[in-house]
Amino acid sequence: MEQQHTGGARDAIVIGGGLAGMLAATALLGHADTVTVIERDRYPEHRGFRKGVPQSRHTHILLTGGQRALDALLPGSCTALVEAGAHRLDLPRDILTRTPTGWPRRFDEGRHHTLSVSRPLLDAVVTERARAAFADSTTHVEVREATEAVGLTGDAERVTGVRIRPRDGGAPQTRTAALVVDASGRSSRAPRWYAELGLDAPHEETVDTGLGYATRRYRPGPGGPPDTGVNIPNWPGSPRGGCYLPVEDGAWMLTLAGMHGDHPPTDPAEFLAYCATVGDPYLHSLVADAEPLTPVHGFQDTRNRRRRYERPGASPHGFLVLGDAHCTFNPVYGQGMSVAALGARALRDTLERTGGPLPDTAATVQREIAAVTDPAWITAVGADLPYLRDADEKRSVGERLTAWYLERLAARAALDPVVGAALRDVFCLTAPLPRLFGPRIAARTVLRPRRPALPAPPTVPEPVRASGARA
Ligand SMILES: Cc1cc2nc3c(=O)[nH]c(=O)nc-3n(C[C@H](O)[C@H](O)[C@H](O)COP(=O)(O)OP(=O)(O)OC[C@H]3O[C@@H](n4cnc5c(N)ncnc54)[C@H](O)[C@@H]3O)c2cc1C
């Protein structure tokens, strides 16, 4: 027999207690009387892996834009992450990134620090801090573990609640609420639930390079850990890439990635052999004598996919979607968690600004979430377009010109601190894309001669003068 729990006009439900869900619940503090977080998994006792976040076995970095959003919602989180073992890696000083023309100069810029930490540790620290904020708030927050959302209630005009099912086999329930937030990640079933309410599924855009990931954790060998992290991305003509970055407890993570189905194997010997075939032998030389700590884990759904819930008439009142449920990115750009945090911050800021009833604010929040997602979407999709097999036939003259410009800009950024800083500002999600097309950057990109980057990884950082603008 189905049980019914009736919520009030200031009650909210968040589906998914992952990163986006915990931050969405935090954003609702003070704006709702109650928040119920529905999480399918049980949280692990110790900062461990859980099934609901399968990508957490792979390298995860948190960009500057995401760090700022996280700290705005849960102050002190980045410091807590570093205290727990995360590495603060200055870009480009502490991560050497190979480009198609060679190695970039190693500027000691002090402008962007990326956080490198295992995903289970990051989730655990964020969840602990979110729970502490819940305990301090006038909003009553209940986190229901081992409970699955299986549908929405309401109609095409208005979502009124969620149908949930305890995973231990207890009776299904309906919980009503003024606002339902879907933060259930890349496996979100919201499009199917829309159909059940009599709504069309939201318009969906997909750009897929067919990239596959495989990751293994290591302890550095007798020679000690490398001085820097290393990133050798894929580039046209070199479809295999990889990165090697430090995480907590003295461990390093090696992630390999290959495009168009040329995926890295999960057999340990073949994985290492694949590592030797990425665009530069340096990566393999770093891991050859390292001690493996885990099996090799694969992951294959890496497409860029966004659903346009913000379009007029696309969504009912009282419902909004954020995090991977809204938009996923090719993970090589390291943006997804940052965009989830930016979306949650947009939720909080919109509620603070409008102060309106929860169901009616949802549409405004969804537009704000789309707006903070745009820069990451445009950069990820723009960077992936050259890898699509039919890219040339599909691209307009304007798109080809932009691709030419951005390719030239990336080559220039390897040697030029001003262009490099602008590129990092955009990729770290602290500046909008037009920053790359400003007169100063355009002049240096187009008028200065094109030169190859350095022939070998630079061993010594180079001090640079701050370029003025805040990152
Ligand atoms: C291989 C890989 C590497 C990545 N690397 C990076 C990186 O370096 N940097 C970065 O910023 N991002 C990276 N990402 C993206 C990042 O993992 C996601 O953007 C991020 O996890 C999104 O958070 P989320 O809370 O929306 O989803 P998730 O973290 O996936 O959480 C979803 C939650 O919802 C729960 N859930 C699902 N369905 C239901 C249901 N029906 N009922 C109740 N609960 C449910 C799940 O159990 C889970 O707890 C990577 C992604 C992949 C695939």
TrEMBL record:
<keyword id="KW-0812">Transmembrane</keyword>
<keyword id="KW-0472">Membrane</keyword>
<feature type="compositionally biased region" description="Pro residues">
    <location>
        <begin position="452"/>
        <end position="461"/>
    </location>
</feature>
<keyword id="KW-0503">Monooxygenase</keyword>
<dbReference type="GO" id="GO:0004497">
    <property type="term" value="F:monooxygenase activity"/>
</dbReference>
<feature type="domain" description="FAD-binding">
    <location>
        <begin position="11"/>
        <end position="347"/>
    </location>
</feature>
<feature type="transmembrane region" description="Helical">
    <location>
        <begin position="12"/>
        <end position="32"/>
    </location>
</feature>
<dbReference type="InterPro" id="IPR036188">
    <property type="entry name" value="FAD/NAD-bd_sf"/>
</dbReference>
<dbReference type="Pfam" id="PF01494">
    <property type="entry name" value="FAD_binding_3"/>
</dbReference>
<feature type="region of interest" description="Disordered">
    <location>
        <begin position="451"/>
        <end position="471"/>
    </location>
</feature>
<dbReference type="InterPro" id="IPR002938">
    <property type="entry name" value="FAD-bd"/>
</dbReference>
<keyword id="KW-1133">Transmembrane helix</keyword>
<feature type="compositionally biased region" description="Low complexity">
    <location>
        <begin position="462"/>
        <end position="471"/>
    </location>
</feature>
<protein>
    <submittedName>
        <fullName>FAD-dependent monooxygenase</fullName>
    </submittedName>
</protein>
<keyword id="KW-0560">Oxidoreductase</keyword>
